[in-house]
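#struct-help
A.M.: can someone run this one for me? Single chain, 630 residues.
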Amino acid sequence: METDRGRSEDHRDYIQAFVQEKPSQRAQEQLDTVSNCGNRKSEPNAFPGQLRHKKPTRDSLTDFHVTAPHRNVMAPCPCAKCLYYLEARCLDRFDLIQFNVSPTPVAAGVPPAVEPGIMPGGKTTNMPLQKLTLQRWPAGRPPLLQTRRLPLRRITLSRRHFSLVLLLCLGFTVTASELPKILIAKDGRTFVTDQGKPFVPFGVTYYRPGTGWAPQVWKQFDPEVTRKDFALMKSLGVHCVRVFLSFGSFYQTAGQLEQDGLRKFDQFLAIAEQAGVYVHPTGPDHWEGPPKWSPVAVEDEETVRALESFWRLFAARYHGRHVIFGYDLRNEPEVGWDENMKPKWNDWLRKKYGSQEKLVRAWRDPNKLSFGVIPIPPARDALKDLQLLDFQSFREDLADEWTRRQAAAIKSVDPQALVTVGLIQWSVPSLLPAGPQHYSAFRPARQAKYLDFLEIHFYPLEHGAYEYRDENDELANLAYLEGVVRETARAGKPVVLAEFGWYGGGKPRFDNGAHPPATEAQHARYCRRVVEVSKGFVVGWLNWGFYDQPEAGDCSELTGLVHSNGTIKEWGKDFQKLAHDFNETTISPTRIGARPQLDWDAWVTSARAGNDFRHLYLQAFLADWRSRSH
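D.P.: on it. Structure tokens below:
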């Protein structure tokens, strides 16, 4: 980006042609105050914009950009001597808003993140004010900012010329977000925009066919193809896209983000915002290969520290970007069940019981127990066994700490960011195919304390993989679904069904081709019913996959809204209708008939107890279903 004085002079007359009037007295006072930082080791005089010195931080050097009203504005101090930044808070009662713009607003080697609201050929920024004041600052000398000193200029222009002037002032990089911020509604169970409109996250997880499996979303990122995908998604009603981050593209070295991955993600955000679609990043995984460091398990301390560092760096870079719906810490985390956990398990027991005698009495174990050598209990089916209950509680504590620390890392740099975790359906242990060890230990009611909203994933696995054989089989899976989302919603936070769907429109190859083909109509009916049954417990839905993925080794092969060639499936058409119905709609809580009461202690210690519960739940569900049908 050129920032030399000659280029500035070239455009000065052209810019002046759009000057409407001199700044108002109030705006002039603001400008004078900014110019008088004074390098005097004192705060500038207070004014309604709350201008103040702010010491530069590692993040501010790479995250400096201009933003819309109601957002902080940061710029190098105009004294050109100190290493401070100035921060202004713009308030909507001003007749003029002051923007402090540096000629080179990014660190060396980091590309600017220009949001599409004021990109070339885009719309002008959506601001409530009629006038904007731009200032061109001298460069200052904060570290890493490579600029040349320029004289201070003051330009006042009408809003309709704002985007044109930005194109001319090549020394400026300005960002302005068109998408409103998504917030938790006052009812505590739904979402709204910062403009007060209801918001239902309705969308997909994004990956493309032809990129392998697991898909290489970032290694094979193509901005133009992605732009076309977003246009098609938007036409089908998608307004929230979940996308996986990866260690391979974003976090190869612990404590350091990969610049190439960030550049691609910046483009991804710009494309999404231009389409009017929110982005839901999901925390780093191994889709594009393992990192140079060695992430282990949820319970591993070094792994958690590295993830805390990742989120602090990543969330700081995208602080205040409204296009980000929220952060999903990780896809389907689960706490392990192995001997490597033995030291922490013994520490947990010592902390809970205090003495070996109390532990022996609690477990009613005649054998002598010594802290430090107590083994991991076998993963057996033993209804309400006290040792098993303790071990499951221990695993839940590990899960809680994993979530708490990462959520706190994000909130430390972006307090307004929404945070969640994509919970696997075994987080509600009414169905545990492999026994108690299959329980993820991420209990929704406990996780909710650290999260802004909850996410749960669901696939039809009652009696094994669903095969569309008869109505009863489908209803059994819908009853299982209702039990899962009902339990998740009991935590009192908004719930998003962040993965759902099943195969349709062909014969799947997973499980060695053991499952029969399904028509598009069967697929669409099942997915439509998932939304209908979960509605009210759930207030957002993200289909698993936008495209069918021929390279996949699981149901992802045929779960999309569109075929791999981009033609719309029957489910895509139904999805579009549902998206229209949910647009700016507040989803009310669901009223259902009596259901059996859960017994969590029984579920997490006995798969048979969960089976018995689902049988009773199905009978109650069917009674309701038949009464509604008549």
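A.M.: thanks! The mean pLDDT is 79.
D.P.: also worth noting: The chain has two domains: 5-168, 182-336+395-592.
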